[in-house]
Amino acid sequence: MKTFANANALDLRHAVTLAQQAHQDGRTASFAGGGSDLLALVKERMVTPDVLVNLKTIKGLNQVTSGKGGATIGGLITLDALGRHALVRRQWPLLAQAAESVATPQIRNVATLAGNVCQRPWCWYFRNGFPCLKNGGRTCFSVTGENRFHAIFGGGPSYIVHPSDVAPALVALDATFRIVGPAGERVLPAAEFFILPRQDAARENVLAHDEVLASVEVPAPRLGMRSTYHKVLDREAWTHAVVSAAVVLAIDNNVCHDARIVLGGVAPVPWRAHDAERVLVGQRMTPELAAKAGEVALAGARPLEKNAYKIPLTKSLVKRAVLALSALG
Amino acid sequence: MSQQRGGSSSAPIAPMKAIGHATPRIDAVERVTGQAIYTRDVQLPGMLYAQVLRSPHPHARIRTIDLSKARALPGVKAILTHENCQVVWGAGSISGGSQYNDQMKKITKHRRYAFNNPVRFVGDPVAAVAAVNRHIAEDAIQVITVDYEVLPFVLEPEDALKPGAPQIWSEGNVSPNNKNEIEPMTQRRGNIDEGFHQAAQVFEGRYTTAFCHNAQMEPRACVARWEGDTLTVYTPTGGISNCHHDIARDLGMPDEKVRVICQYMGGNFGNKNQNQDADLITAMLAKEAGAPVKLELSRKEDFIGMHGRWPTVQYYKVGVTRDGTVTAIQMRAYSGMGPYRKNSGGIAGIELYQCPNIESRIYPVYTNKTVSGNYRGPADPQGYYPIQSMMDDIAYKLGMDPIEFILKNMVRQPPNATFTNYTLDECIRRGAELFDWKKRWKPRPGSDPGPIKRGAGVAFMAFRSGVGMSSAVIQVDATRRYTLFVGVTDVGAGAKTTMDIIAADELGVAVSDVKVVWGDTDRCPYSVGESGSRTTIMTGRAVIEAARDLKRQIAAEGWPTGDAVLTASASPNPKTPGQVRNCFGANFVEVEVDVELGDVRVLKYLTVHESGRIINPLTATSQIKGGVGMGLGMALHEDMLYDRRTGRPLVTGYYFDRVPTHRDVPDIEVTFIETDDGYGPYGAKSIGESGMIQTPAAISNAIFNAIGRRMTDLPITRDKILGALA
To answer: Which of B51, B644, B650, B663 is the best substitution to test chain A (most A C-beta atoms within 10 A)?
Structure first.
């Protein structure tokens, strides 16, 4: 670990100012929320900040505030608190399910919503310090290497999969992200926050190095809306999704009126399955329709040498998630 | 847990006072309240901190090492490289791969130094630094510049034997035996051709098992201090006596000038019953710096720099008659040893069958992966899984119940000897009954309708429980307080408590009346070491002999008075002439496989285990449960993968290794059949390794019963299951 200075932020503007000051002095800065991911990267010298801007000292950024149009969720809320939050559990169950499926209780007690959305990939080439695209190098080692856990959609030149559980849920909920930076605030739809490697292979999202993901806005559920987060794990705790499906359906009288299907573990970003959503809308819910949604969701997948199993796996997962929601009364 | 006293083929055992009753560990409170002093907790005045620079290349020659920047850092006190430290780590590379000793020191050609040039795996130590604090030590290794000539490398044992493969040693890539002959480990019995001639059908199979790390909780560490020419080493070791002698030999010192202390340690699981290169590096840094030094390996270093179960590729050919009698077993196999032969590379399993005609050839092969070493049942689970999968498969093909096939073909008598007692058939029959095998097992594999399919599997074991030499000393003072000196450490199995229980019962006092002194070569006599599942048997026997001698002394001389103490010691070396001593067991598993998601869930796990008399049911049960948990990890999770393009490891810690968590391991039902064959302490046999060795075989056989596909490569991961069903 390289030695660093700690700077406590009083509010978001102060946090941005602290980072800017560091940059002006020719020093590097990193924002730390829960720090569970950052600290591991710092210990391995994969990130070597001179200044660590501590966001945990900002008050009020760990709350869920409900309003007419939905709720604002502060980026500093821990995954544990998010998963337990009564309103979240009632209105957006998939978000609570995603939060409580992460890692281990110890990690959920410190890790934050914003941190989970912004965490770096868990590709074993990246985490082991290979000189890959994510580490400033020029190749993605997974293409000809061990790619069992890599992307089947949206890959190239990097084939990482996005590691967040809450991100697919937020995209499926049509959430918006509030970002604070030197120029003030900007608000983006969740889906536009994440970027594919063909746009910029070194990053996973649009955040500039002096910007902070402050909060997310989740719209109020529509009539008949139900949601679920289905996740496949290779170990019951402390591992990321092999694949996952965040599904939001509006069902009335057993007919689907609206659908969002967002896949995790298959692409460098939360991967929205538009065609599968279209298969469902306006249709009567049946097991055959659910299976068809699964088939269509995986159309166009391009597996690498060792991850073709993700195709039948994800088809089955989508089918089951859709069926589970149609079964809810 | 249930216990049945008295096996069918042994006399019923008599109840005892402490032995056979659940006794909490005598150091449990110290451990859970943080009072226990582990190596990392040792703080000495003026102590320096060490860091090791490791090779980033799987095979490279070091041209130059530039230390100038590191030396210039304030606070750096010593730096070692292959240029100024030529200490040989004897136990790290041994011709033949068995226990290192003075004889093997003379013979071994492929020597492993503390710092090697060329480096032969990613993680091979290149340099070590001692500095006044951890940060400076870490900064120092960052600024050491090494000029490497990168050499070609090879990762897989079969590739290493192909013509034109990179040669890791000039004699080639097959590791020499203990006479330095380049020969496979070969075993023959009967006439293999005649065996196949007698067979009505011959079956063939290829199986592979993965490189698995011991993944013990405490990464290796060491604190070393010199006082004149005397060296004290604090290190987590599973054998202070061997570690002590190895360090003295490697450093060219008399044994009495070295002291090894291990009061507490966090797990062994094989391979700590010698010294470690970390011990030698720390000792040499302390000497160079003239101050005590502490070295603490990170989890990543412990994974890449150390050892794991050797990965294997195995080919089998088995002949059977029409009635299902096995007439011939032929096996050819390759064990990936890494670039040094730390241990044997053996593969067990064939001896489980009574078959008269066998032939096996096992090639221990050098590769450029991290060195393989002993891991809980060093040769066993990776051999049990293929042979018991082969036999399970044959049973189905002949239309037989696998249990019927096992009972027909399992070993009943060892070659040219007898067993001291034999309970294998009882373990299997009793387990089948407790498990309700007839109800859970599917005569037609994969026959459950729907995507969630259940199946049952069985595997069995017979594992060494040999007797041998170890020592113990017991004292009593005028206040009639007893002190037991035993050179054991507690690697997790509870040896200190076990020795206390044995001493208490033999002396006729309470467990709390005996103070146990352990883990210090200056205070304790020789003990065999916590490997090979033998401490209870061997050191336990010595405790009995010493206690009996002390009782005789008390009877003859009366109780000591004043400051006097009575001391008794014993170093028995019992034998079982003409007899083989084994423990026996059988595992029964029910799994549920989700064929759409590739999930395997173990629903029920039942073991019947005969380890002779059970000294402490609490820790004995834990040994079986812990063993099954590790076996489950080997069966379904763990695989130390390497990148084939760069030769660098990808699985460098608990996260990527996917070691099972408590939520992955089911409730494990343990039943002991207790016997006393007249050997060991009151008939106690081995238990530490034999809980895990049949687990991968049993789980794999249950998966076959559930889905009707034979899984031939460990670990049985989701991608393989979905691939087999595609």
So the answer is: B650
pLDDT band at B273 (very low <50, low <70, confident <90, very high): confident
Check if B133 contacts A (Cβ < 8 Å): no
Give the per-residue pLDDT at B89: 96
State the DSSP code for B610: E
Return the biggest CA–CA distance within chain B: 81
Size of interface A-B (CB pairs under 8 A): 77
C-alpha to C-alpha distance for B208 and B335, rounded to whole angstroms: 10
**A270 CB-contact burial (10 Å; exposed 0-12 / middle 13-18 / buried 19+):** buried
Ordered structural domains, chain B, with CATH:
1-10+412-465+579-726 (3.30.365.10), 11-35+467-570 (3.30.365.10), 39-151+221-235+276-296 (3.90.1170.50), 156-204+312-409 (3.30.365.10)
| H or E element that contains B196 | helix B192-198
Q: What is the pLDDT of residues A239-264, one digit of tens each?
A: 999 999 999 999 999 999 999 999 99
Helix or strand (DSSP H, E) at B235: none
Residues of chain B positioned with their CB less than 8 A from the CB of A239: 655, 658
pLDDT class of A329 with cuts at 50, 70, 90: low
Which among A130, A145, A316 has the least Cβ separation from residue B644?
A: A145
| Residue numbers in A near B637 (CB within 8 A) | 234-235
All domains of chain A, ordered by start, with CATH? Answer: 1-54 (3.30.43.10), 64-119+158-219 (3.30.465.10), 226-327 (3.30.390.50)
ipTM of the modeled complex: 0.96
pLDDT computed for residue B6 by the predictor: 37
Q: What is the DSSP string of B114-164?
A: SS-SSB-STT-EEEEEEESSHHHHHHHHHT-EEEEEE-----SHHHHTSTT
- Give the nearest partner residue to A313 out of B142, B644, B722, using CB atoms: B722
Based on the number of CB atoms within 10 Å of its own CB, is A24 exposed (0-12), middle (13-18) or buried (19 or more)? Answer: exposed
Query: What is the C-alpha to C-alpha distance for residues B452 and B443, in angstroms, rounded to an integer?
Result: 17
Tell me what the pLDDT averaged over chain A comes to.
97
Comparing alpha-carbon positions, the chain A residue that sits nearest to B650 is A124
- Backbone CA torsion sign across B269, B272, B278, B279: positive
> Which runs of E-coded beta strand occur in A118-232?
176-181, 184-189, 212-219, 225-232
Model confidence pLDDT, tens digit, residues B277-298: 999 999 999 999 999 999 999 9
Backbone phi, psi, residue B196, to 5° = -70, -30
Contact across the interface for B641 and A312, Cβ inside 8 Å: no
Strands A29-32 and A51-54: parallel
Longest dimension (CA), chain A: 62
Residues of B in contact with A306 (CB under 8 A): 719
Q: What is the 3-state secondary structure (H, E, C) of A68-135?
A: CCEEEEECCCEHHHHHHCHHHHHHCHHHHHHHHCCCCHHHHHHCEHHHHHHCCCCCHHHHCCCCEHHH
**CB-based contact A303:A143 (threshold 8 Å):** no
- Using the Cβ of B661 and the Cβ atoms of chain A, whether some distance falls under 8 Å is answered with yes
Taking the CA of residue B135 and the nearest CA in chain A, the distance in Å comes to 7
Number of Cα atoms under 13 Å in the Cβ half of residue B293: 29
State yes or no: pLDDT of B5 exceeds 90. no
Inter-chain touch B722–A312, beta carbons under 8 Å: yes
User: Per 3-state DSSP, what percentage of chain B is helix, strand, and coil (rounded to 5)?
Assistant: 30, 25, 45
pLDDT in tens, A171-225: 999 999 999 999 999 999 999 999 999 999 999 999 999 999 999 999 999 999 9
Give per-residue burial for B524-551: e unless 16+ CB within 10 Å, then b: bbbbbbbbbbbbbbbbbbbbbbbbebbb
